[in-house]
Amino acid sequence: MYNQIGDDRDHASMRMPKEDPYYGRGFERPVYFIDGEPQQRGKFMNNTTGTSSTAGKFSSAFRLGAMLFDKEDRKYATLLSKKSETAYAYANIKPGVTQTVSVKSPYIYAEDNWVDDMQLAAAMGFSMTKKEKFAREALRYARQEKITPWMDSDTAAHYQWYPFINLGHYELAKGLKGQDREEIVSYYKQGIEQVNRRAEKNAFFRGVPFIWCSNNLTVSFAIQCLWYKELTGDTHFDELAQANFDWLFGANPWGTSMVYGLPAGGDTPVDPHSAFTFLGKHPIDGGLVDGPIMASTYRNLIGIKLNNPDSYAEFQSDLAVYHDDYGDYSTNEPTMDGTASLIYLLASKEGKAMEEPAGKK
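-> C-alpha cells emitted (361 positions)
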C-alpha cells in the first residue's frame, strides 16, 4: 500500500497537472510505501511510527465499498471485503502513524493519531460481519482517544489530528446498545462541549481554532454535531452547529463564503490558489478553501506573496487573516478532503430537508 504519490515538488511552480517536469524522467511521480519506518524528506526525516493510520483508512474504505456493492456486484464486494481484512492485518503489523514526505519544503501532513483510524476500521468490520471481536477492538480503540485532541486545544500542527473528527464513534454507536452505546456517544458530547466553551466567548459563536485548514475543522465539527443529534435526539447544540455552517457561507468577519461559486451571485472566492482557475480559467464551483489562519502563523510562512491589493484589508486582525488571492496558499487553496466533507454535510442537510413536510422546507 502507498501513503503518498508525489511530494512537495508539486508546488515548484504554478502549472497544470499534465505538465509536470519536476521529478526527472517524463511526467512520472514518486510513490511512497507504507512500511512503518521514518522516511527521508530532504535533509529531514518524518516522524512515522507505524502502519496503522493509513492502512486503517484503507481497511475502512474497502469495507464501505463492500457494503455499497454487496447487491450490485457480489463478486467485487467479496474482493473488497478480503482487501479490508488484509489492510486491517497490515495496520496491526506496527501500531502507529505514517506521515508524509517532503523533499524541499519544511511542511508535511504531520498526522499524529492512529487509534481513531483503527477504531473506524474495526467498527466497519463489526457493521458488516457482526463479529463481536470487531466490537471489542473498536471499543478498546475508542477509549484510547475519546475526544479528537484539537477540540481540547487552541492549536495543532498541520493535519496533526486528521481527519479532524472521530468517524469511528458514529459508526460504532450505531451498532451498540445499552451502556456501551451511551459511553461512545458521551465522547462526542464531551468534544462538542469543549468547543462550545470557546464559542460562547465571541460574537460569531466561533470555537474552532485558526489553524491551517480551519475550514476543514469547521465542516468536520458541524458533522460531529449532526451525528450527535442523530444518535441522541438532543437539540442542545443546534445553534452551535448552525453557527459553524453559517461561518462557511459568509457569517464571518470577512463577510464572504469560503466555497468557490457558492452561493451563485454571492461574495465567494474568485482568485484561489489553484492552477485550474489561475492558468486554465476553469471554474471549480463547490471547492472549499483552507480558511482563516492565525496572523502569527501567516506571517511566518514561506513563499507567500499577495499578487493584488488585499480586498479584505480592513477586516484583517492580529488574531486571524484570510485573503482571496492565489498568492496565499495558506488561506485560499481549495482542498479535496475539506470539499468532500462539505459535500457530505450539504447532502445530509438536503436529505433532512427532503424529509420535512413541504410547507416547512
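Residues 7 and 219 are 26 Å apart (CA to CA).
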